Amino acid sequence: MLALQRDLAAERLSDRSGSDLLLLVEHDPVLTIGRGSQASDLIVDRVWLERRGMEVVVVERGGDITFHGPGQLVGYPVFDLAAHRRDLHWYLRRLEEALLQGTAACGLTGGCRVEGHTGIWRAAAGVLPDAVQRDSQANGFPAVGATAAGPAVREHRLRKLASIGVHVSRWITRHGFALNVTDEPLAAFEAIVPCGIPGVAMTSLRSEGVEASPDQIRREVVRGVVKAFGFAQTASTSGHTAGPG
């Protein structure tokens, strides 16, 4: 998958009049280590990993360590930001917006951003009314400010639903997001400090009461991407299983 992303990014760079694309996959179990990760973020030994057939791959994206595996929807946009907006902050907020729109369409309530922690979260009742900050690049979904987020994360009143980590070179994007659909991936996060956030609780759409099928979730996430980035129409929403990386 890493090689495919590099090849597609090179093609996109060589033909900037071409089309952006979004790869949607479900990985075999793998831990990926981003540029911001520390050795202490992996809290199990190699024996633990080998018993579970779990590989560890160092990747070029930003962010810390995370897990990819069955029960997730993993998306890799290969976009030319020169054709959209040359602004990494804007791009990350657009990815969050796409996921928030897609998951809301599947029935999730309480979806939000958390200031300083890229990704999407689910807030427990009572968190959002007192903690909301508005982001000028958001389209109606709330952002929890850093001061309020700290206690809420530690108390698991804010739970992380999707991780985002990207690589951008010459304004062509690679890597992307991992959305927890079922509970299957959650146990693997016990092996790491997810996204470098001590004490964070990872969650899934299923854990938060969303009963939509994987196909419906995939379709709604694609629609969210189309809307967030202003694309004219959706492409195929078919996905496949991918190997590590």
General form: globular
What name does the CATH topology carry?
BirA Bifunctional Protein, domain 2
Q: Could you state the oligomeric state of the chains shown? A: single chain
CATH class: Alpha Beta
Can you tell me the CATH architecture? Answer: 2-Layer Sandwich
Q: Can you identify the CATH superfamily? A: Bira Bifunctional Protein, Domain 2
State the order of secondary-structure elements, H for helix, E for strand.
HEEHEEEHEEHEEHEEEHE
Number of DSSP helical runs: 6
User: What fraction of residues sit in β-strands?
Assistant: 25-35%
Structural class: alpha/beta
Mean of all residue-level pLDDT scores: 88
- The value of Rg in angstroms is 17 Å
Question: What summary fits the major beta sheet?
Answer: 10 strands, mixed
Low-pLDDT windows of residues: 133-137, 234-245
Query: Helical content, roughly?
Result: 25-40%
Mind explaining what this structure looks like?
The protein is an alpha/beta fold and 245 residues long. The chain has one domain: BirA Bifunctional Protein, domain 2 (2-Layer Sandwich). It has 6 helices and 13 strands. The strands form 2 sheets. Strands 1, 5, 6, 7, 8, 9, 10, 11, 12 and 13 form a 10-stranded mixed beta sheet that branches. The chain has a 3-stranded mixed beta sheet with strand order 3-2-4, with no helix packed on it. α2 (46-51) links the parallel β2 and β3. α3 (88-105) crosses α6 (214-229). The longest helix has 18 residues, at 88-105. It is globular, with a radius of gyration of 17 Å. 42% of the residues are buried. The model is unreliable at 133-137 and 234-245 (pLDDT under 50).
